[in-house]
Design brief:
Layout (H helix, E strand, L loop, with lengths): L1 E6 L7 H14 L6 E6 L27 H9 L2 E7 L7 H10 L6 E2 L7 E2 L5 E7 L6 H5 L3 H14 L4 E6 L9 H14 L3
Parallel strand pairs: 1-2, 1-3, 3-6, 6-7
Antiparallel strand pairs: 4-5
Helix pairs in contact: 1-6
C-alpha cells in the first residue's frame, strides 16, 4: 500500500505535528505499507488561491502544469491521510484551497449528465485526523456534523474515494485532554492498518 500523508498546519511545534509523527511512526512499523510520501502544504508554500482569467480557465485546471506533481501523488496513493486542525468548525483554508484545485473535473471526477458524476479516484481510501479546542462532540451537536459531511460526502464520496475513517479529537488545549492517549491511538491504528 502506498500512503500519501498531507499535513496542514503552519507550526511544527503543534499537536497536529505530533499526530503526524505518530502516523509516520506507526506506518513505518507496518509491513502492509510499502511506501510513504509526506506533503506539508505550508512548508511546500502551496498557493491555495484560485485564479481564473482569460489565460487560466477553470475547465483546464485538471491539466494545469503547476499542479502536475500533486496530481501524480494522488494517483500514486492507495491511501490518503489528512492531518489538520479544525478552525471555526472546518478545515484550514490551506486545505480547502488544495481541495479546490486538486479535485478538479477531468482529474478527480467526470460529469455524466446525471445527478452524480463518475468518481475517477476509485480504489483509494482516506483517513482524516483532526483536532480542535472545543469538545469532541461539538461538531455533531452544534454544527450538524458539517465537517464530516464536507469531507466524506461532498469531497471523497464525490470522487469515488471510500471508505473514509475519521479521528476527531476535541478538548486538545485542555490539561485533561488526554493528548498522550490520543497520540498513542493514532500510532496503534497505523501500525496495524491493512488497507
Amino acid at each position: 500500500m502506498n500512503m500519501l500523508v498531507i499535513y496542514i498546519h503552519p507550526n511544527h511545534q503543534s499537536l497536529s505535528y505530533a499526530f503526524l509523527q505518530q502516523v509516520l511512526r506507526g506506518s513505518r512499523e507496518n509491513s502492509n505499507i510499502t511506501d510513504i510520501q509526506v506533503l506539508d502544504l505550508y512548508e511546500e508554500h502551496f498557493n491555495p488561491v484560485l485564479v481564473f482569467n482569460e489565460t487560466k480557465r477553470r475547465r483546464d485546471m485538471h491539466a494545469d502544469p503547476a499542479l502536475q506533481k500533486y496530481r501524480e501523488q494522488l494517483i500514486w496513493a492507495d491511501k490518503i491521510v489528512l492531518v489538520y486542525p479544525i478552525w471555526w468548525g472546518r478545515p484550514p483554508a490551506m486545505l480547502l484551497g488544495y481541495i479546490d484545485q486538486m479535485f478538479a473535473s477531468g482529474f478527480a471526477y467526470r460529469d455524466k449528465g446525471g445527478l452524480l458524476p463518475e468518481g475517477l479516484l476509485k480504489g483509494k481510501s482516506a483517513v482524516c485526523i483532526s483536532s480542535m479546542q472545543g469538545p469532541t462532540h461539538y461538531p455533531l451537536f452544534f454544527l450538524n456534523n458539517a465537517h464530516k459531511i464536507l469531507m466524506k460526502r461532498a469531497l471523497f464520496g464525490y470522487v469515488g474515494i471510500k471508505p473514509v475513517k475519521f479521528f476527531e479529537f476535541g478538548n486538545m488545549e485542555s490539561k485533561n485532554g488526554r493528548q498522550s492517549e490520543k497520540l498513542e491511538k493514532i500510532y496503534r491504528y497505523f501500525k496495524t492498518i491493512a488497507r
